[in-house]
Amino acid sequence: MSEVLGFSSWASVAVAHCAGAHGLVLSHSQGWKLVYSGDTRPCAALAAAGAGATLLIHEATFEAGLGHHARAKGHSTLQEALQVANDMGAYRTVLTHFSQRYPRLPRGFPADARPWSQRPLLAVDGAVVRFSLLPRLPGLMPAVAAALEEIEEGDRQQQQQQQQQQQQQQHAE
Q: Which parts of the chain are coiled coil (predicted)?
C-alpha cells in the first residue's frame, strides 16, 4: 500500500488525551511530512516525531483564557497548539476542532501574524488543502478573519434587532 500512495514511513504516536489516543505522522517519498494531532494536550512525543513537518493539523479546542478547561478535558488551547507547531518546526499549521462556544474566529487567532511562517490556517468543514498552495495560503487569513468578523457583527446586530422587537411587543401587550 505504501508503494501505491508513496509513503516512505508512517508512525502512530501516543498523545496526551485518553487511553488509546494517537496522533499520526506520515512521511512521503517526495519529501513532505504531514502530522495530525487528533485530540490532545500539547505532546512532546508528537512534536519530536513530527519535527520539520510540512503541514501540522492540530486541534485548538479552547482559547487561552480557558486553559484550565483544556487541561481538564485533555485538549489544547489555540496558543498551545501554536507552540507545538513552533517546537516542531512545522512549515504550515492548520488549526481545527474548535469548541462549539466559538461560532466564529476564536479570540487570539493570529490572522495577521508576522512572519507568515507563524500565521496559522483555520480548518473549515470540507476544505481541501493542496500542498502546492501551502506557500500562499497564509496570505488569505486576514481576509478570512475579516469576513468572519463581519458575519459575527451582522449576527450581533440581528440579535439586537430581535431583542428590540421582543421588547416592543412586550410593551405593546
A: none
